[in-house]
Amino acid sequence: MNLNNDDFITIGNKKSSKVSILWFHGYGSNNWSFEPTMKLINMRLNEVAYIIIPNAPIIDGKSSWYPLPARNNNGDLVEDYDGLSKSIEAIDNLIESLSLDQNKKFIVGGFSQGAALSLSLLFKSRHGIDGCAALSGYMPSANEFKEFPLKSNNIFIAHGYQDKAISYGDFKKTLAFLETKTDALTKHTGDFGHTITYEVSEGFIQWLQKI
């Protein structure tokens, strides 16, 4: 993945912060779409976070963190694990370039495809991770990660029953997979669609405060 390591937004004070958060936007979106939300969340956290929001590269005309699944000749949906692995490597290089304080907590998280990327980092990143927040996402290439241990049991995962972009059924499959790895998941579900509700934000903030 050709990731421009200079194309990111930062929120908060890097030096005085107590936690670093790397946040990924969804497919077809951009980092500015989450700037207001993450500013508000940091205000609620008393400005203790240093938040980095990178921009996904353009793949087939859309901003995307990794190649989307494609159908083979039999019509089956096939995930591109190699493409995902290259994306994880690019994100790891970004993390390295940020020169974050290793003594501070480091959280990854995101929305939709950004949530999926965050979950994959929790298994395959070469960096230490203290927690992961996955909002309206799914576990990509789950079969390929069966033998990988989690880098942290601190996972906040939220999904709506009415999500049409990533179905609640996909969420249940993701949940079943993660529960083979840990019983310490923090879950939030409700009657909403592919969005971040006030209740989800509140749950996310409370989870962060515990960490």
Structural overview:
The structure is a single chain. It is built from 5 helices and 11 strands; from the N terminus they run ββαβββββαβαββαβα. It is an alpha/beta fold and 211 residues long. The strands form 3 sheets. The protein has a 7-stranded mixed sheet, sandwiched between helices. A two-stranded antiparallel sheet has the order 4-5. Strand 2, helix 1 and strand 3 form a beta-alpha-beta unit. The chain is globular and about 55 Å long. The model has no long low-confidence stretch (mean pLDDT 92).
Q: What is the residue-averaged pLDDT?
A: 92
**Strand arrangement in the largest pleated sheet:** 1-3-2-8-9-10-11
Q: Tell me about the biggest sheet?
A: 7 strands, mixed
Helix fraction, binned, reads 25-40%
- Detail the poorly predicted runs: none
> How much of the sequence is in beta strands?
15-25%
Q: What is the tally of helical segments? A: 5
**Count of individual beta strands:** 11
Taken in chain order, the helices and strands follow as EEHEEEEEHEHEEHEH
First-residue to last-residue Cα separation:
31 Å
Principal-axis shape equals globular
Structural class: alpha/beta
Give the radius of gyration: 16 Å
How are the secondary structure elements laid out?
Elements: E1 8-11, E2 19-24, H1 35-44, E3 49-54, E4 58-59, E5 62-63, E6 70-71, E7 77-78, H2 81-98, E8 105-111, H3 113-124, E9 131-135, E10 155-160, H4 168-178, E11 185-190, H5 198-210
Parallel strand pairs: 2-3, 2-8, 8-9, 9-10, 10-11
Antiparallel strand pairs: 1-3, 4-5, 6-7
